Amino acid sequence: GRLTVSLMLPEPLAVHVAPPAPTQVQVAVSAAGNVSVIVAPLALLGPAFEAIGAKLFGINPGGKMYYHAASVVVSNYLVALLELGTKLFEQAGLSPQRALEVMAPLVQSTLDNVYRDGTAAALTGPIARGDTETVANHLQALDSQKREYGETYRRLGEIAVERADRDARRRPDA
């Protein structure tokens, strides 16, 4: 089967590649609101994109929606998660600006750990420790503030537990 190819380039240039034929690629290039479509052999365009620092990789034919959803989760939903964190810090008495200042090193350290060590090793806190009492206390406080906050914590916690269980380790020092 043919693969869909995605090129990750710095903004404001966006490139989307779709294969009209197994050896050809259709490229939609958008910059400053203008879109150009190019159809050319993959053998010609691949090296040209690599020469400008693009990273080419394939996506399974049925995986395009998952790829796009993953991109939304790790970009837009990360912003939404940080917004929730800001609101919770505000409940603790911090200004939005102070909340961002407090979050910056924590978020950066977490991202550094994920990219260096992977998601399993980067998981810390009460779930990584198996500290169900702290999780229950958090949920009680969040549910009493706004039910949606507790639900978000609960759903993300389930994903964290799955990650920790898949790794089959809980770390008391996490």
Unreliable spans are 1-5
**SSE order, one letter for each helix or strand:** EEEEHEHHHHHH
Task: Tell me the radius of gyration.
Answer: 21 Å
Q: Into which percent range does the helicity of residues fall?
A: 55-70%
Report the portion of residues in β strands: 15-25%
User: How many distinct helices?
Assistant: 7
Distance between the termini: 44 Å
Annotation, overall tally of beta strands: 5
Strand numbers in spatial order across the main sheet: 4-3-2-1-5
What's the mean pLDDT score?
80
Largest sheet: 5 strands, antiparallel
Note down, in words, how this protein is organized:
The chain has 174 residues and is of the alpha+beta class. 59% of the residues lie in helices and 18% in strands. It is built from 7 helices and 5 strands; from the N terminus they run E-E-E-E-H-E-H-H-H-H-H-H. Helix 2 crosses helix 3 (96-117) and helix 6 (132-145) runs antiparallel to helix 7. It is elongated and about 60 Å long.
Short descriptors:
174 residues; alpha+beta; five-stranded antiparallel β-sheet; 59% helix; elongated; disordered N terminus
Topology:
Layout: E1 4-7, E2 14-21, E3 24-31, E4 34-41, H1 42-51, E5 56-59, H2 64-91, H3 96-117, H4 119-122, H5 126-129, H6 132-145, H7 147-167
Antiparallel strand pairs: 1-2, 1-5, 2-3, 3-4
Helix pairs in contact: 2-3, 6-7
Structure in a nutshell:
This protein is an alpha+beta fold.
